[in-house]
Amino acid sequence: GINAEYMGNLSMKILQILGVIACYLLVQSFAQISPVTIGVCPIKQGGTPVFEIDLSGTYTEPNPIIRGDPLHFHIDGVMHENQFVKDFCYDAFINKKIIDHQCYRKGGLVYKDEEFILEYDFEIPSYIPPGEWQIRLVIRNNREVELGCLSAGFKVSPQSLHITPHL
Length: 167
Hints:
The protein is an alpha+beta fold and 167 residues long. The protein is 16% helix and 47% strand. The protein has one helix spanning 4-29, and strands at 32-33, 37-40, 51-53, 59-61, 71-79, 83-94, 97-110, 114-122, 131-141, 146-157. Strands 1, 2, 6, 7, 9 and 10 form a 6-stranded antiparallel sheet that branches. Strands 3, 4, 5 and 8 form a 4-stranded antiparallel sheet that branches. The longest helix has 26 residues, at 4-29.
C-alpha cells in the first residue's frame, strides 16, 4: 500500500500549491486602479464637433471603477445644429490595442442649441488585466458622421508585492 509518510508529504505539497494560488488571487484582487479621467477627443472627420460636451456636467461613476460593476457614463452637452442622432459607439482599448467595439441605437431629433444627455453603462469585467485602459464614446448622426467624442481612461497597476513560492 501507500505509506503514511508519502501521503503526508503529498498532502503538504497540495496545501502549499493551494496557498500559492490563494496568494496570487489575493494579490490580483488588490491591484491598484486609478481614478477615471474624462476628456473630449477629436472627431474622425476633423473640425469642430456639432455636439459640444460640457465636461462640468459629464461624469462617470463609480470613480474609481469597481471590478464586476458597470461604469456609468453621464454625458451632458449641447447640439449646435439640428441633428438626427442615430447611435453611439464605443471602442475599448488596453495599452492602445482595441479589444472591443459596439454601437447602440439612440435615435431621435435633437434641435439646435438643445441640451442632449446620454446615459450609458459600460460593463467592467471582474478580472481586469493590468494596463492602460481607454474608452472612446462617439455620438453619430444618421449619415454616421461623428457629432462628438468623449474619452475616458484609467490605469490598472499590479501590486508591487512579489511572492516567491518555496515548494
